[in-house]
Design a protein that fits this description.
three-stranded mixed sheet; 2 domains; single chain; about 25% strand; GMP Synthetase, Chain A, domain 3; alpha/beta; 6 strands; elongated
Length: about 170
C-alpha cells in the first residue's frame, strides 16, 4: 500500500467512516490511489449513502492528507442503460413505494439515473421528515436493489431543509 493510500485509510477510519456508516454504508475503503493524488473509494452496504456526502468526504481528506487532489467513488458497471434504469425505478416506485408513503402525505420520484445510480427526490410529507434517511436506506434502496440488477445505488437529492410540512419533524427525533 502506498504512503498516500495508507494516510487516506487512516483518515477514513478516524473521521469519515462513522458518518458513512450512520448513513447506511458498512465500509468505505481505498480502491486506488493514483500518483496524481486522485483517490478512488469503494463503499459496501449502501453506496448511495456515500454519494451525497462525497464532497464533504473529499474536503475532509484533502484537509487531512495534503497529497489528495480529488476523490471519486467506484461502483459496478450497470446492466441496464440509463433510460431503462430510471424508467424501471419509477415504475417500481409508483407501484410499490408511493402507495405506502401516501399515508404520510409523501411521494418519491426518480429524478435521474446514470452509471447505475438512481437519484430520487422525496416530496410532500417525506421532504424534511426526520425518518427520510431510514425510508431510503431500509425501504426504498433494498426494494430497488432486489428488483433492478443493474442498480449500483440510490442517492437522495431532496432538499430536506426546504420541507414545509414533514410527517415527522426533526424536533420529533
Amino acid at each position: 500500500m502506498s504512503d498516500l493510500a495508507a494516510a487516506v485509510t487512516a483518515a477514513l477510519t478516524h473521521s469519515i467512516l462513522p458518518s458513512a456508516i450512520a448513513r447506511g454504508a458498512t465500509a468505505v475503503r481505498v480502491a486506488a490511489a493514483g500518483e496524481d493524488g486522485v483517490i478512488t473509494l469503494e463503499a459496501d452496504g449502501s453506496p448511495g449513502a456515500v454519494l451525497p456526502i462525497l464532497g464533504r468526504i473529499e474536503a475532509q481528506l484533502r484537509a487531512a492528507v495534503p497529497g489528495v487532489t480529488a476523490v471519486r467513488l467506484a461502483g459496478p458497471v450497470p446492466a441496464a442503460g440509463p433510460g431503462d434504469l430510471g424508467a424501471a425505478a419509477q415504475r417500481i416506485l409508483d407501484a410499490e413505494v408511493n402507495p405506502s408513503i401516501a399515508a404520510h402525505r409523501g411521494h418519491v420520484t426518480a429524478v435521474s439515473a446514470d452509471g447505475g445510480w438512481v437519484r430520487i427526490r422525496l416530496e410532500g410529507g417525506c421532504q424534511g421528515c426526520s425518518l427520510a434517511e431510514v425510508t431510503v436506506r431500509q425501504g426504498i434502496e433494498p426494494l430497488l436493489r432486489a428488483r433492478l440488477p443493474g442498480l449500483t445505488g440510490v442517492a437522495d437529492v431532496t432538499d430536506h431543509e426546504a420541507g414545509t410540512d414533514p410527517f415527522f419533524s426533526p424536533e420529533k427525533r
